[in-house]
Amino acid sequence: MRNVEANVAIEVVQLGREALSLRSIARQRGVSPATLVRRWGSVDQMFDAILIRMLAR
User: Could you report the per-residue pLDDT of 23-41, keeping only the tens digit for each?
Assistant: First the structure.
């Protein structure tokens, strides 16, 4: 049971970080977070694309 609770806590922290990242990216581009998600299709696809760009540098 503790492992499940720990895993859920880790997921919540990661989702919170992703949400903050999404807000900051949207702010930098001057659009709303919802607009970014619509353009990319999903949050996961957007973060995958951002990671690929960062790794390519």
Answer: 888 888 898 878 877 777 7
Residue spans of the domains in the chain: they are 2-56
| DSSP-based helix, strand, coil % in the chain, nearest 5 | 90, 0, 10
16 — pLDDT class (breaks 50, 70, 90): confident
DSSP-assigned letters across all residues of 7-32: HHHHHHHHHHHHHHHHHHHHHHHTS-
Residues 6 or more apart in contact with residue 36 via CB below 8 angstroms = 22, 25, 26, 29, 46
Backbone conformation region of residue 42, classed left if phi is above 0, alpha if psi is from -120 to 50, else beta: beta
Residue 53 has a CB neighbour count (10 Å cut-off) of: 9
